[in-house]
Design brief:
Layout (H helix, E strand, L loop, with lengths): L1 E8 L3 H14 L5 E7 L6 H14 L3 E4 L6 H12 L5 E6 L3 E3 L3 H11 L5 E5 L1 H8 L8 E2 L5 E5 L7 E5 H6 L13 H6 L6 E11 L9 H11 L6 H6 L4
Parallel strand pairs: 1-2, 1-4, 2-3, 6-10
Antiparallel strand pairs: 4-9, 5-10, 6-9, 7-8, 8-10
Helix pairs in contact: 1-2
């Protein structure tokens, strides 16, 4: 089984500069081929894309240039079919603005190896914690032979870090999304045949708490507009809005 990781870099270079070394240091598996895809942030695109590529290579990651902003899942599919040669693989999807418990990659692999029917495995997150805080019981707690605890989720929560099986991605025809450029991958996958989702209990995804310079507040405004019906890209939105 081959292991891949992918970080979709549709962001300011400053974010990847802060987050990628940290995320790499939290990964304990040494046989993961980590890719950073250059998804073309529309502000100072050429300069930002060059800086992203230098940061990625400086952190021992391979680089795949998407050419332009295709939207997150379309960009994933282009990388996937061009570079994943062995479909008996697990791919770790790692958002550039997140953080996670040390060893999250080995724990995900442990669970997905233990139960080959699991198609997606995520980390404990805020949605799971809110339900627990409200007194809602967790589904049955399970564990691998090495003691990694997890449960099978019949619904879905948002995720920033996952493991996903490449053969299942191929089986369902690649990733899709409910909006042109962003959003609701979780709901899209939940509806696909064979979907089985596990969440780890002792390994968490957490906010990265990266500096303000890493973010553009207009991106959040665009995402909300996109989910509400604006069909254009972030770049198209910027051309029509001065905030």
């Amino acid at each position: 089984m081959k292991l891949y990781a992918i970080t979709m870099a549709f962001c300011r270079a400053a974010l990847l500069r802060h987050s990628l070394p940290k995320l790499r240091s939290l990964m304990t598996l040494r046989n993961v081929e980590h890719w950073v895809t250059l998804n073309h942030w529309p502000i100072d695109d050429a300069k930002n894309t060059y800086e992203l590529s230098m940061i990625a290579m400086g952190n021992s990651c391979r680089v795949y240039d998407q050419g332009y902003d295709r939207g997150l899942q379309k960009a994933f599919n282009k990388w996937f079919y061009a570079n994943v040669e062995n479909f008996d693989s697990i791919i770790f999807g790692i958002d550039p603005d997140t953080c996670a418990s040390p060893g999250f990659d080995a724990a995900i692999l442990d669970v997905m190896t233990h139960d080959p029917a699991i198609k997606v495995c995520g980390l404990w997150n805020a949605g799971n914690q809110c339900k627990l805080d409200r007194g809602e019981p967790l589904p049955e707690m399970l564990a691998t032979k090495t003691g990694t605890r997890y449960f099978i989720h019949l619904g879905v929560e948002m995720w920033d870090v996952i493991g996903i099986r490449s053969d299942w991605i191929k089986e369902i025809g690649g990733l899709g999304q409910l909006h042109e450029y962003y959003g609701n991958l979780e709901l899209y996958l939940h509806a696909k045949p064979g979907f089985k989702l596990a969440y780890l209990i002792d390994y968490k995804q957490e906010p990265g708490n990266y500096p303000d310079e890493c973010f553009d507040p207009r991106y959040r405004i665009w995402k909300d507009a996109h989910l509400a019906g604006f069909k254009g890209s972030f770049g198209e939105w910027l051309r029509n809005h001065t905030i």
